[in-house]
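Example record

The entry below shows one chain as it appears in the dataset: sequence first, then structure tokens.
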Amino acid sequence: MRRLRPIPIAAVLVVLVLAWLVRPIWHGLAMFFWTSPLVWLVPLLLLAAGAVLWRRSRHSWRTLEDLRSGVRPPVWLTAFPALALLSFIILAALQTPLVGRAIVTATNYEEIGGLPPGGEVRLVPREVAEQNASSAFNSPTETLTNFRIVDSEKGLNWTALRTPQGAFRIFTKKSQGLVSLDAENTARSLRQVDAELQVAPGLQITDNLRWRLLKERFLVKLEEPVGIETKRGPRIVVPYLEYKGLLVRRPVLGGVFVVAPNGTIDDLEPEEAARRPELAISGRIFPDTQARRIQDAYQYKRGVWNAWFVHEDQTRIEDTESNRQPYLVDFATTGMGPQWVTVAEPYGRAFAASAIFLTDAVTGRTRIWRVPRRTSLSGNRRALQAVRAVSIPGVDFGDGSPGSGNFRVVEPRPVFVNGGVVYLTSIIPTSANAVSKTVVVDAKTNKLVAIFDNDRDPQAEEKTRRYIQTGQVPDEAAAPGASTGLAAQQPGATATAPGATGTGTGEGTGTTAAPPTGAPRDVERRLEDVIRRQRELLREVEGLRDAVRKQPRGG
């Protein structure tokens, strides 16, 4: 028996050590084998079985000379590679539904009889926040990345990390902190938080956040990093997922990395992270992506066969833009805290709402409110159509093509007002540089309830928040044909969710309904808008006249 030479063994050891030191490079390939054993194990076993039979075959066809002489392997032996490829394709297609079914089996979807009242919801859509923050951030050497919604004691905020830009700076410079933008105020209010972050996204190579975290834990899936403010300075929070199961492995929250400015990394268990107030209040312990996986998986509640062919009681979550559901809503007044809220529609071409999911942003506890069968509520897509169908003075909706309107409506956030469901939508310019109006759509009637003029009314945000808490619509904000006072009540939705302490979940809760608004108010609003546009046009004409007078006359 020949002995292995020491030099090859040393070379193999060197290669293994180098591969381990740069293991983040191989993370994607390793995670495929770690998270999808069913996809690759069966094809591998088929190939192994074919190899064993090939070795035991008595036919002499293993050399090129044998093949030239006409000796061929048995036809049945070629079936193993074909079966391996076919099984790989089939199992890869089955991977997502099987994982979804595993998530459903392991998750307790707690059904609730009603919806929690009120809740703080952001008034600034994500793309407006990105535009406003970028336009107000005055730095030629940095760019803003990782925009995320974060809860705090002062309310909801959009945060972004300050990342060096340029091929040279990403290797030599550090991140200089983060920025925070008030998500409950449509007026731009950007605030910079200065702190040199030794480890952050966008830095290269060993200072890169992903590189350092994968050195801490390799066989995990890192969720998106989020910058938050604490009393001890800014921190980067990165939840990570672990996988459970044998052949079908499902993701679960494994823990939370908390990175300090000096590069110190705290690896916290989910329960340990929940005991830290600055993390719990942020709503970023249980990530929105994992909440969405749990909510999406509910479509497999009755099995994969039902989801593919029968579709009985099957839910499907539809998104209206790139900023996908769920949306973060803070139910601090009811004791529930921050929740990831998602509206699901029934399978098929229906635009109605069939269920609403609430996933705790700290613990991951998921509640579901199923819309009663005899109740009809509009889904999130239908709410956007309802806004586009109404003539709003000064607003011309477009489809994105040249010459079309210069406004669009985005992000139908579900809000629970007096036990009913309404959608809070934002009308923004196509440039996404401001919030022009906040429009409320009643999910029961699919009609507009209120139009808050953020571009003209400095109190629009306060009025919107007051409406969410009380259900009262100011006279000046009432939509054409709508009634002020309480929002429409949803049958079967008058009870509050477990842990809710608020009242006012039905009619007769102490609010007074104002007389209906009719055509006179609409005409008055239209006249004001026409006058405003005429004044703007007059100022523009006067400006052009002054410019012409100042130009030198030619001879």
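Notes for this example: The first strand starts at residue 109 and ends at 111. The longest helix spans residues 519-550.
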